[in-house]
Amino acid sequence: MSRKYIPYLVTLVLIAVLVGVFAHKGPQTGPQGNAPQGNAPVQDKTFDMESFFLVFDTNHDGGVLPAEFEAVYATWEQGARFSMGAGQEALSAAKAFQYFDQDRNGRIDGYDPRMKDAWDKAWEVFTRDCAKRGLAPKEWRGLWLGLNTAQLGTMNHEIGARARGELPFGGAFFDAKYFEGNRYVKVTRKDGTFVQGFATEKEGKLWVVTTEQSLVVVKLADATVEEKPDSPQAEYLKAVRMTPFEDVAGNLKLARRCMELGLAREAGMMFARVLVFERENSEALKALRLKLDGVNFVPAGD
């Protein structure tokens, strides 16, 4: 049997990554009565930190949670588990997790000082794997994502919109200042034509973000304004402000609600968000009339 021990100092961790030190010992009894058969030697070795995320990050999101760690650790024989030094007793899953989770945030990732080198090496492996599959490697708030062209486009649009302070509406992104007050109106001009959308008022003019992906400016003196505080669009805007880009369940819920409200474009944007993080999500694929061809999206057809 071979127990993996974790050194006390960060410097030793880095040395272990680089050179893989092995410490051999003679016959001895393992912890909790797990003795090797006959006179077979117990071999202690420093853990290959380079492999940490490849071993424990089973859902490939760039981090390891306690349940994820414990599920893998439970499959290891007692004599192969972590200890704090050669020949010492095996650590429980909770104590081993705590060792690696140095910042005590309940998640082991590249922000933990002990794990940075292992994180960087695992990221190199991840990027090579993405390249082989024709995917672009991206990291989003600790999540590691291999994205096809469509997914990458959606993510880049979302990232750009966030940087500019924009919100999604009607299949496009608009400056959040045009949604202040969550005021949805119908504006009728003197000639009888009208527009509907979110309105902000300034210097006798109404700036309206319409459902047709446009920004219309109307003079208040030349129009009649009808307030629609209970509109489906107002409900959507309130919800989308509270739904993070990476919240798959939240975006699915909002997409379904948009479909109920007849907001097809808004629903489409939420389903597209879902596919960034779950490429094989059947509900989102069906809603957007897509299917997978390998790792890429293609039209599903009728």
Keywords:
302 residues, alpha+beta, Serine Threonine Protein Phosphatase 5, Tetratricopeptide repeat, SH3 type barrels, 36% helix, elongated
List the helices and strands and how they pair.
Layout: E1 2-5, H1 10-19, E2 22-24, E3 43-46, H2 52-56, H3 66-73, E4 82-83, H4 93-100, H5 116-133, E5 136-140, E6 143-147, H6 149-164, E7 166-169, E8 172-175, E9 184-189, E10 194-202, E11 205-210, E12 215-219, E13 223-227, H7 232-241, H8 248-261, H9 264-277, H10 282-287, E14 290-293, E15 296-299
Parallel strand pairs: 1-3, 1-4
Antiparallel strand pairs: 2-3, 5-6, 7-8, 9-10, 9-13, 10-11, 11-12, 14-15
Helix pairs in contact: 6-9, 7-8, 8-9
Poorly predicted runs are: 7-42
Average predicted local confidence, pLDDT: 82
Task: Estimate the strand proportion.
Answer: 15-25%
Task: Classify the secondary structure makeup into a structural class.
Answer: alpha+beta
Count of extended strands = 15
Distance between the termini: 58 Å
Main beta-sheet annotation:
5 strands, antiparallel
* Physical arrangement of strands within the biggest beta sheet: 12-11-10-9-13
Helix content: 25-40%
